[in-house]
């Protein structure tokens, strides 16, 4: 089958927009992505929309009413924090199959304030009896497990937040744009050890969109800024006896990464930059190993050596990541692809990863889903 290309891609600045609707945010991102490649709503043949909290509002159709209601097929997708990446993957499959030449993928979210996750609403409440299903507790437990096994320190986890907040000072679309020294991160309010408040992702609103086209369409319109989708992998978690009480945040990513590397015909050593799911600082270190960026148990040493900082061996979350750029659940997956696309095009400004040729994006939606995409400059 022929290749699929990202021809247009963009995102809104992540922030808090209480006076704007899902459709308005998603519509803005969609129009920006279409403008990015010189196409219009009438050129789009199929559309997919990823959102979590807008799932009951037929958000994809509402977005089309904002940008041009042409009667094309529209599908809304819910896959927790992997919703946007899942919508992108469905658009990729639609073009890859040869049925469509132009597909639009939109991820959009208006995220509630406060802590996400927690106990079930019906039945016997297990919250607190068998651990906690709240997101801070889940990722604190996984970090503590890594620390117990490999000696990873509180400071090494905190360095993730220092790095990502530094990166975000160069990103005008990031929610936060401020430096956070190590002492400030470690001294911030403790949410769930070892994650302090500055080591937790920030709940914000926002949208991102991508226009995917067939190889024939890409050649017709010009490949000068096109991004080839070299791999698209989506996995769910296989059964594990501990799943009901202790969510496994690692296996599903390892499966998706393995599939993506095999599809792309590359290894982790070929990747120029990574945008991964740093919902908590502990998660980023775990995913260094899950994605094969470093060896087992070496994540702490990897960040100590500055290997994932801009200018390092493989810069991670140069956008600022979920910790600083922000984490509007349904939009995050496509926003990660926007960041990588900027670098592959050489358009990332002060935070440009020099010589970037291949980028990897990763998200995890607990429940569970993980999507890994490999992108390459055409």
From TrEMBL:
<feature type="domain" description="Thiolase N-terminal">
    <location>
        <begin position="4"/>
        <end position="111"/>
    </location>
</feature>
<dbReference type="InterPro" id="IPR016039">
    <property type="entry name" value="Thiolase-like"/>
</dbReference>
<dbReference type="InterPro" id="IPR055140">
    <property type="entry name" value="Thiolase_C_2"/>
</dbReference>
<dbReference type="InterPro" id="IPR002155">
    <property type="entry name" value="Thiolase"/>
</dbReference>
<feature type="domain" description="Thiolase C-terminal">
    <location>
        <begin position="250"/>
        <end position="376"/>
    </location>
</feature>
<keyword id="KW-0808">Transferase</keyword>
<keyword id="KW-0446">Lipid-binding</keyword>
<dbReference type="GO" id="GO:0003988">
    <property type="term" value="F:acetyl-CoA C-acyltransferase activity"/>
</dbReference>
<keyword id="KW-0813">Transport</keyword>
<dbReference type="InterPro" id="IPR020616">
    <property type="entry name" value="Thiolase_N"/>
</dbReference>
<dbReference type="InterPro" id="IPR020613">
    <property type="entry name" value="Thiolase_CS"/>
</dbReference>
<dbReference type="GO" id="GO:0006869">
    <property type="term" value="P:lipid transport"/>
</dbReference>
<dbReference type="Pfam" id="PF00108">
    <property type="entry name" value="Thiolase_N"/>
</dbReference>
<protein>
    <recommendedName>
        <fullName>propanoyl-CoA C-acyltransferase</fullName>
        <ecNumber>2.3.1.176</ecNumber>
    </recommendedName>
</protein>
<dbReference type="GO" id="GO:0008289">
    <property type="term" value="F:lipid binding"/>
</dbReference>
<keyword id="KW-0445">Lipid transport</keyword>
<keyword id="KW-0012">Acyltransferase</keyword>
<dbReference type="Pfam" id="PF22691">
    <property type="entry name" value="Thiolase_C_1"/>
</dbReference>
């Amino acid at each position: 089958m022929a290749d699929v290309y990202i021809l247009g891609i963009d995102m809104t600045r992540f922030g808090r927009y209480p006076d704007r609707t899902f459709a308005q945010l998603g519509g803005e991102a969609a129009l920006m992505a279409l403008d990015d490649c010189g196409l219009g709503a009438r050129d789009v043949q199929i559309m997919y929309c990823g959102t979590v909290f807008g799932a009951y509002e037929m958000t994809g159709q509402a977005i089309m009413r904002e940008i041009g209601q042409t009667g094309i097929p529209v599908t809304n997708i819910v896959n927790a924090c992997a919703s946007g990446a899942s919508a992108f993957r469905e658009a990729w499959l639609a073009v890859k199959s040869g049925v469509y030449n132009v597909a639009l993928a939109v991820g959009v979210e208006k995220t509630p304030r406060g802590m996400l996750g927690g106990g079930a609403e019906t039945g016997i409440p297990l919250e607190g009896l068998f651990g906690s299903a709240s997101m801070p507790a889940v990722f604190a437990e996984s970090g503590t497990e890594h620390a117990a096994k490999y000696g990873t320190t509180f400071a090494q986890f905190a360095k993730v937040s220092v790095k990502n907040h530094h990166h975000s000072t160069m990103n005008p679309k990031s929610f936060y744009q401020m430096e956070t020294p190590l002492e400030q991160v470690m001294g911030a309010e403790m949410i769930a050890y070892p994650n302090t408040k500055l080591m937790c992702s920030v709940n914000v609103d926002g949208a991102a969109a991508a226009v995917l086209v067939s190889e024939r369409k890409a050649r017709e319109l010009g490949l000068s800024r096109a991004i080839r989708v070299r791999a698209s992998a989506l996995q769910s978690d296989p059964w594990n006896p501990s799943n009901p009480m202790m969510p496994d945040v690692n296996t599903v990513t390892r499966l998706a990464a393995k599939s993506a590397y095999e599809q792309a015909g590359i290894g982790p050593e070929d990747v120029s930059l990574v945008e991964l799911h740093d919902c908590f600082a502990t998660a980023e270190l775990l995913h260094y190993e899950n994605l094969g960026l470093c060896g087992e148990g070496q994540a702490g040493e990897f960040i100590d050596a500055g290997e994932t900082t801009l200018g390092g061996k493989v810069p991670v979350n140069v956008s600022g990541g979920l910790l600083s750029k922000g984490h509007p659940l349904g939009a995050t997956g496509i926003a990660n692809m926007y960041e990588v696309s900027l670098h592959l095009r050489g358009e990332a400004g002060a935070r440009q990863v020099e010589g970037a040729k291949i980028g990897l994006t990763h998200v995890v939606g607990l429940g569970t889903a993980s999507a890994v995409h490999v992108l390459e400059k055409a």
